[in-house]
Write a structure and sequence with these properties.
By secondary structure, the protein is α+β, with helices and mostly antiparallel strands. Helix content is 67%, strand content 16%.
Length: 441
C-alpha cells in the first residue's frame, strides 16, 4: 500500500522522545527485537506450542499402532527347563534322575477377517491424529497472532508515552513563559496556578502511560515465552496503512476462506469423523461378528514339529440385557454431539471473521480522519502558543489547544495501531496467520 509520508509527523515526533530518553538513560538490560525475531522467539519458546506438539506426536504414534493390525505378527520364543527328581532307594529301586530340555518356537499369525473392527479402529485413530495436527496448527497461529498483536501494542504504548511526555514539556514551557510574563508585570499571577495545575495533570497522565507501557512489556514477553528480565525494544516502527491482501476481499469470500482454512474448524471436522468411525466400531463389536485367523507354529527341537491353524468364528448376541443396543446408541449420540460442535465452531468462526472485518474497515476509515484532526490541532496549538508569546492570546486558549492536540495525537496513535491489530485479527480469523509473516520486510 502507498505510504503517507505526512503520517510520520506524530509517530516520528513521538518516537524521537522515546529514543532520546533511552539514549540519555539506557536501561541496564535491553534487547532490540524485530517483529520477525519476536514471532520466531514465540514459536521456539512458547510452552503451549510445545504441549500441542507433543500431543500431536502422541496421536500420530497411536495411529501407527492401529496400522500394525493389518500386518502379520511374528513371535519367537525360547524355553529351557532343568528337572531333578529323587526317591528313596528300596530293594534296588529308586535313586535320582536329572533332565534338561531346551527348544525354540516360531509363530506367525494373521487376522484375515474381523467384521471391520480394524478398519473402524484405524479410521478413528487417523481422525484423532489429524485433529491433533490441526490443534497444533491452531496453537501455532495463535502464537503468531499473539506475538504480533502484543508487539504492536508495545509500539502503541511507546508512542502514547511519547505523546504524554511532549504534553508535559509543552505545559512546562507554557508555565515558564507565564512566570516570566508575571515577573514582567504583563500577566496576572492567577494564571500561573492554572498552568501549574495543567502541568501536574499532564504528569499524572504520563505516569499512567508509563505504567501501561510496563504492562505491555510484560504481555509481549509472556506472548514470546520469555522468562528473563530484559526490556524489549521494538525495532519495526510502522507509520503506514499497509494491510494484508485478504483485507480487500468481500466478507463472503473471507468466510469461505475461513471455513476451508481455519484449523479449529478442520479439527472439529476430524473430531466428527472420529466419532463416526467409533459408531461403526460399536456396531461391529456389538452385532454379529465374524473372525478368520490363520497361524503357523514351528517348534525347533531335535524332533521338529510344525502346526498350521485356521480359525473361523462367528457369534451373535442373542440376549445381553440391551447392553449392545445401548452401546451403539451411545456412540451415535456422541457423534450427534460432535456434529453440533462442528456447527457451533463454524458459527464462532463466522463471528470472528465478521468482527475482525468490520473492525478493520472502521480502522481504515478512521486513520485519515484522525490524521486530519491531528494536523488541525497542531496548527491550532501553534497559533495559540505564538499568540501567547506575543501577549495577545490567553492562558485558557493555550491550555485548550494543548488539550485538543494531545487528544488528537492520542486518537491518531490509537487509530493507526488499531488498524494493525485488526489486520492481524482478520488473518487469524480466516486461518492465514502465516500471511502476517509474509507481509514483513
Amino acid at each position: 500500500m502507498k505510504v503517507r509520508r505526512n503520517q510520520l509527523t506524530v509517530l516520528a515526533f513521538g518516537m524521537a522522545y522515546a529514543v532520546g530518553a533511552v539514549a540519555q538513560n539506557p536501561p541496564a538490560n535491553v534487547r532490540r527485537i524485530t517483529l520477525k525475531e519476536a514471532v520466531a522467539t514465540a514459536l521456539k519458546q512458547q510452552p503451549d506450542l510445545s504441549v500441542a506438539r507433543a500431543q500431536a506426536l502422541a496421536a500420530d504414534q497411536q495411529h501407527r499402532q492401529t496400522l500394525a493390525a493389518y500386518l502379520p505378527s511374528l513371535t519367537f520364543g525360547w524355553t529351557t527347563s532343568d528337572t531333578y527328581a529323587s526317591s528313596p532307594q528300596t530293594a534296588g529301586t529308586g535313586g535320582s534322575v536329572a533332565n534338561s530340555t531346551s527348544y525354540a518356537d516360531l509363530t506367525i499369525s494373521y487376522t484375515v477377517l474381523d467384521s471391520g473392527k480394524r478398519l473402524a479402529t484405524e479410521q478413528s485413530a487417523k481422525a484423532v491424529s489429524r485433529a491433533a495436527g490441526f490443534a497444533l496448527e491452531s496453537q501455532r497461529q495463535i502464537v503468531i497472532a499473539n506475538a504480533t498483536t502484543y508487539y504492536y501494542e508495545l509500539l502503541r504504548r511507546i508512542a502514547l508515552v511519547a505523546v504524554q511526555r511532549a504534553s508535559v514539556e509543552h505545559a512546562q514551557s507554557t508555565l515558564d513563559l507565564t512566570q516570566a510574563q508575571v515577573q514582567q508585570g504583563t500577566q496576572a499571577t492567577k494564571d500561573v496556578y492554572q498552568i501549574r495545575a495543567d502541568l501536574e495533570t499532564a504528569k499524572v497522565e504520563l505516569l499512567n502511560a508509563q505504567n501501561n507501557l510496563a504492562v505491555a512489556q510484560a504481555q509481549l514477553k509472556q506472548a514470546l515465552g520469555m522468562t528473563d528480565d530484559a526490556d524489549l525494544d521494538p525495532v519495526d516502527i510502522r507509520t503506514d496503512e499497509r494491510v494484508s491482501a485478504e483485507a480487500n476481499d468481500s466478507l463472503d469470500a473471507l468466510l469461505n476462506i475461513a471455513f476451508k482454512s481455519r484449523p479449529d474448524v478442520l479439527q472439529a471436522q476430524q473430531n466428527l469423523e472420529r466419532e463416526k468411525a467409533n459408531v461403526r466400531l460399536s456396531r461391529a463389536s456389538n452385532g454379529m461378528t465374524l473372525s478368520l485367523t490363520a497361524g503357523l507354529s514351528s517348534v525347533m527341537v531335535e524332533n521338529q514339529s510344525n502346526e498350521r491353524t485356521v480359525n473361523l468364528t462367528a457369534s451373535f448376541p442373542l440376549f445381553d440385557g440391551g447392553a449392545s443396543r445401548a452401546a451403539i446408541r451411545q456412540a451415535e449420540a456422541i457423534a450427534d454431539q460432535y456434529a453440533a460442535q462442528l456447527a457451533s465452531t463454524k458459527l464462532a468462526a463466522k463471528v470472528d471473521v465478521e468482527t475482525a472485518f468490520r473492525t478493520l474497515q472502521t480502522a481504515r476509515a478512521s486513520v485519515p480522519a484522525a490524521l486530519t484532526a491531528q494536523q488541525a490541532a497542531q496548527v491550532s496549538f501553534d497559533a495559540a502558543s505564538e499568540a501567547r508569546k506575543e501577549g495577545v492570546g490567553t492562558v485558557v486558549d493555550v491550555i485548550t489547544a494543548q488539550s485538543q492536540l494531545v487528544q488528537a495525537q492520542t486518537n491518531y496513535v490509537q487509530a493507526l495501531y488499531t488498524l494493525y491489530t485488526a489486520d492481524v485479527a482478520l488473518e487469524r480469523a480466516i486461518g492465514h496467520a502465516d500471511a502476517i509473516l509474509g507481509g514483513m520486510s
